[in-house]
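Q: Focus on the chain.
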Amino acid sequence: MNQSILDLVGNTPLVKSNRILQKDGVELYFKLEGQNPGGSVKDRAAYNMIKSALDRGEISKETKLIEATSGNTGIALAMIAGIFGLNIELIMPENSTVERVQTMRAYGAKVILTSAEDGIEGSRDYAEEKMRTGDYFMLNQFGNDDNWKAHLKTTGPEIWRDTKHKITHFVSSMGTTGTIMGTSTYLKEKNQDIQIVGVQPTDDSRIPGIRKWPKAYLPSIFDPGKVDRILEVSEKEAVDMSRRLAEEEGIFAGMSSGGAAAAALRLCNELESGLVVSIVCDRGDRYLSSDLFE
């Protein structure tokens, strides 16, 4: 019996691809992060960032938290801040799906929408400016070591355990890069030969949750030495694979998960043998107001 919803963060299922990949000697597994209570992989980082800041005495119930987000981190922060009785203000682009905004507000967060044209960079600038001029504390997922350490402590060990130490390749979309940084750190400690593959969008593609950051906005937690290879995927590839995941595997997920799965399938088709794990970072129901599944 769980004592808190927080006990359900992590230990997400690993499910084998049975239709999208059918190739002797190569196995593809999807790690279903949408099974976290807040519906995404970001529950892990949000919990670790808030809990660690509380433990260090950096924040209290009197603190006003502020954070820029493109969606999933905001939902996770709203949920976990609410559980700890903390006030949080979330800044996001106005073209974010209505499901995201409503979910954050349902968890008790204040949501401020910034220009869609300025994207997440504009939201980050707004949050930084507000923090400088007011009494706010920013968790700063892009530069907070507690982000990637969440995956060092949980995601990496779970994958190592659940693949019975047989994983050969790990594939993850890159946004804040916390997932790939922490998981890479753990898996490389266990076996240096495990290949870490990051996924970015092609230059002409917009894929929510996957970014190719301008240099000025590159997350400071990102260490290129922890990624062996970067694969680029197009918006069409990400959309098509999101739809295939739902139709062929029964995995209902968002576009960044489709992008990672598309890259993972491309990788699997190169291999003669191996066990590949791809992160499915959230659930598809928070994209129903978009055209992703039309």
Remarks:
- The chain has a mean pLDDT of 95.
- The first helix runs from residue 42 to 55.
- The chain is about 40% helix and 20% strand.
- The radius of gyration is 18 Å.
